[in-house]
Amino acid sequence: MASTPRPTPTPYDTDKYPKTLKVFLDHCGQRRCKSAFIQDILPNILSSIGNGKSQLNVIGVGSGAGDVDVEMLTQLHLKHPWARLDYETVEPSRHQLRKFRETVNQNSHFDFVKFTWNEMTDTEFEEHWKQKNITKKVDFIHMVEMLYYVKDPEAAINFFHSLLDKNGKLLIILADEVCSQVRVSKVVQGQLCQEYHPSSALSIEVIKSLLDARGVVYESYQLLSTVDITDCFTEGHETGELLLDFLTKVQDFSKRASPELRREVMTVLRDCSVEKDGRVMANDSHSVLIINALD
Ligand SMILES: C[S@@+](CC[C@H](N)C(=O)[O-])C[C@H]1O[C@@H](n2cnc3c(N)ncnc32)[C@H](O)[C@@H]1O
Predict the structure, then answer these.
(1) Which among 51, 168, 277, 294 could disulfide-bond with 164, CB atoms 3.0 to 4.6 Å apart, if both were Cys?
(2) Which of 112, 106, 138, 114 is closest to 125 using CA atoms?
(3) Superfamily of domain 11-292
């Protein structure tokens, strides 16, 4: 019997993920950029949702450990201090969900929120929603850096978009076409990841063309930052290897890749980098899309 090809594991599949993520966050300016967007621009966007309702329904898709969710929740509360929040989180990783719950449990500040923890993928959540005949409409939904792992990003966007209430907003954050992550993922995808996560090289440009084709209205904001990839050029360097896992979206990339593929990835990384003060800094640009509810 022909054997099914073994899927290539992403770093998210393992207990090593928090360490991989931490190394990445320590080496890039992305978190700072996202936080600045959430504090300076998002509040204005959130002010128009809800139509003065006393309860706002929110869904976080692919929330991870909830660091970004917590920042958004805080801004939502500041904008709508009298509203209670009904917050559904959709996250397939038990480990990540546990971390998110721990953060919430340790912080009495979140007593204005009722959390529902859905340990599910986007498609399992859609099934669950339809099976239970849930009819509630949602005021704010976010999908931050998670569409790379979804089997059918267009279907996922269409489903969550259809849940929005009048004046509701869907926020998507994803890497730009020129971002080093997208460029290396394109190289890796053809050779290692095809079976497992076909969207790993997805960029915001692809999502914009899908939305444009459907005539969906959205606003776009660019978040420009860099990631320090100097250690990736020292083979076997612990930090460098973890960074490579994160950038290629393949767990233990160097062990799985042929020497040629590794060399190709390093060339691409060099091409989308500049040298600054002796460090190699790769382009890490991302975009935020804010999509309005359907009329
Ligand atoms: C790069 S992390 C982003 C986490 C968080 N949104 C952030 O920005 O910090 C991607 C997250 O998507 C989750 N994920 C992977 N496949 C998913 C799917 N099909 N549906 C929902 N979430 C998924 C992963 O478990 C992981 O927590």
Answers:
(1) 168
(2) 138
(3) Vaccinia Virus protein VP39 (3.40.50.150)
The length of the chain, given as a count of residues: 295
For the chain of 295 residues, list the mean pLDDT of each consecutive stretch of 10: 48 72 89 95 96 95 95 96 97 92 90 96 97 97 94 96 96 96 89 65 95 96 96 95 92 90 96 96 96 90
Cα angle 22, 27, 30 (rounded to 5 degrees) comes to 85
Long-range Cβ contacts of 16-23 (<8 Å, 24+ apart): 16/242, 16/251, 17/93, 17/95, 17/96, 18/65, 18/95, 18/99, 19/242, 20/242, 20/245, 20/246, 21/64, 21/246, 23/239, 23/242, 23/243, 23/246
- The domain ranges of the chain are 11-292
Question: Taking CB atoms and a 6 Å cutoff, what residues make up the pocket around ligand 1?
Answer: 12, 61-64, 67-68, 90-93, 96, 121-122, 144-146, 149-150
d(CA 8, CA 70): 31
Ligand 1 geometric centre to CA of 160 (Å): 15
User: Among residues 102, 69, 93, which one has the least CA distance to residue 11?
Assistant: 93
- Residue 139, classed as helix, strand or coil, is strand
What integer pLDDT is reported at residue 12 of this predicted model? 64
Give the pair of three-digit tokens for residue 125. 């959540």
Distance 278 CA to ligand 1 centre (A): 33
Pairing of strands 113-118, 138-144: unpaired
Q: Under a CB-based contact definition with an 8 Å cutoff, are residues 180 and 272 in contact?
A: yes
Q: 124 CA distance to ligand 1 centroid (A)?
A: 14
pLDDT given for residue 201 in this prediction: 87
Distance CA 187, CA 164 (A): 36
Rounded to 5°, angle at Cα 61 from 228 and 88: 135
